[in-house]
Amino acid sequence: MTKIKSLFMALILSLGVSSAFADGHGSTLDVVKERGFLKCGSNTGLAGFGLPNDAGVWEGIDVDVCRAVAAAVFGDASKVEYVPTTSKVRFTVLQSGEVDMLSRNTTWTLQRDVELGLEFVGVNYYDGQGFMVPASLGVSSATELDGASVCIQVGTTTEMNLADFFSANGMSYEAVPVETNSEADAAYTAGRCDVYTTDASGLYASRAGYPDPSAHVVLPEIVSKEPLGPSVRHGDSAWADIVRWSLNAMIIGEEKGITSANVDEMKNSNDPEVLRLLGVNQVGDTGAGYGQWLNLSDDWAYNILQQVGNYSESFERHIGPNTPINIQRGLNALYKDGGILYAPPFR
Amino acid sequence: MTSNPLRKLIFDEKIRSVWIQALVIGLFAFLVYTVSQTTAYNLEKRGIGTGFEFLHMSAGYDISFSLIDFTSKDTHLKAYFVGVLNTLLVSISGIFLATILGFLVGVIRLSSNWLFRNIAYVYVEFTRNVPVLLQIILWYSILIHLPKVKQAVQFLEFFYLTNRGLYSPSPIFLQGFGFVLWSFIFALVFTFFLKRYLKKKQETTGKQYPIFYINSAIIIFTPILMFYIMGMPIEFSHPVIKGFNFQGGMVLRPEFMGMLLGLSIYTAAFISETVRSGIMAVSKGQREASQALGLKNNFIMRLIIIPQALRVIIPPLTSQYLNLTKKLIIRNSNRLFRFSSWLWWYFFKSNW
């Protein structure tokens, strides 16, 4: 019997230990620092947002948020390990502690923020569900799509928005269910469906990969709000603050005109906010800079702007009008340029 | 042997096997219990509540092909039944096609014609060794690269082939069509008894009747006669291009046809081998004996060979049918049942 007892004990212990392990993460910042690199949940591959380039280096505006956090924590933007996550597993990967943060076109919703135990720290891209059609159809508005065949990924919220949009406008459609982005691209380019609908950013990214991108137009109607942003686990506010302010630093950088090229000159600026941001000015006369509040070095924001650049640089580099993705700033312009991008003051 | 009960516990084979089994079952139950408790605990800790309440919530999405009425306001449960019906439709059609093709190829493989025999051989070997998923994708890709709606291929006057599917006129039954249907059922019942009667007569008098031809004629012509008597109570709705798509008529979608072709052509290759082995399992002596009796070739096949072959064929055939259905469900668990989206709802109460 003792043998069996010890077997029971072993079983209980192993189960207990594994559950304790899953629970027991202390301060995320300490864990990350000790590990020596940041683990960032990324997309499995979305051009312009998060995709490895020819050399295998991850690039994109979502990836730049990971790099910014690494630059803030380690002073080295390259100290990131990317964990590709599909839309189905992304939250589980974050919750189980497999990654430190998630930065892959994920919509901020009440349920995700509250019930799933995530914490969204900001918005790095204001998106919305759009419709793409071949230019040859001569359609200029989504309200002209009555009777069309629509390619739609099964099981997504976009599927429900689609049903709502068409029934609200009294239109009928044929849903062509597809499972992945690439399946949708294949069906859409073959003409199986007239319309492909998903987040507008995804449409732009898909279009860039088509043989003739100019033959497809994204219609002006945006039928949903999809604020995409990085998220962390609920319960470690200190870590959430670091990710939040890494993103904010990039936005303030753009607002103040600090780029990776002129960041050193800007240290001589007359603007106190710039000086605070770049770690030149101290908090009062305490002798310590603004990094102390985040448990980071005072040049954390300097490192972000020097190595990753400001928000505008990141946008133009990966998805702007000069890239194959070709997205206008639109909503994602700064509040003073007609968009809604707005960071709290750095003080 | 002493009758010490403790010794019995170990050395009596019957008693020993009982408590060992009980122990294993208990251990397993404990394991299941612990794992589920730990899972539940960890889920709760992460604020993830599970439950099937979502089944009674409205699905929120549309299904373009459904045998029963379905709108986005209906529940997830109803969407599931739509999936079950669609699965049954595809698997039954697939089984039907695969059986016909399989029997045909199986018989051809035993043909004395070198060319036919080897064409069947190549088909079987090729199809069996290419993964079925690849074949489904191949057929689907071919189908969605057919001409677009505006350049639809028209054939047999009323049919249109496009990359959105095969469109055909759909019948609209007017009043009086019920009589035609009833006359058909009546003809079926009548021919059943007629066949029994004529068989009996043949057994007593030895006179043979062309039962097959007589019955076929009755089954075909009775409803047609009724159809004209009732004044042709049927109309057709023809598919017409309107806007983006054909409207009206019936349509077989490329998703449906691709799945059907891929699965049934694949399964047919296996069925043909089953059929061939079944026929070859009937000993040569049976054929020779019936030839010696002077039976005609088609009688030999129908009365001697096939009944014996079926005994060998049917058991593996059922597993082929199961296989087809299983492959269909695995390949389409998301499209038909939204399986992963169910998991998501179960845990997170939303789509992803």
Can you offer a commentary on this structure?
Chain A is α/β, with parallel strands linked by helices and 347 residues long. Chain A is built from twelve helices and 14 strands. In chain A, helix 6 links the parallel strand 9 and strand 10. In chain A, helix 3 runs antiparallel to helix 11 and helix 9 packs across helix 11. Chain A is globular. Chain A starts with a helix and ends in a 29-residue tail after the last helix. By secondary structure, chain B is an alpha+beta fold. Among the domains of chain B are: 41 residues; 67 residues, no CATH class. Chain B is built from eleven helices and eight strands. In chain B, the strands form three sheets. A four-stranded antiparallel β-sheet of chain B has the order 1-2-3-8. In chain B, strand 1 and strand 2 form a beta hairpin. The mean pLDDT of chain B is 89. At the A-B interface, helix 1, helix 6 and strand 10 of A face helix 2 and helix 11 of B.
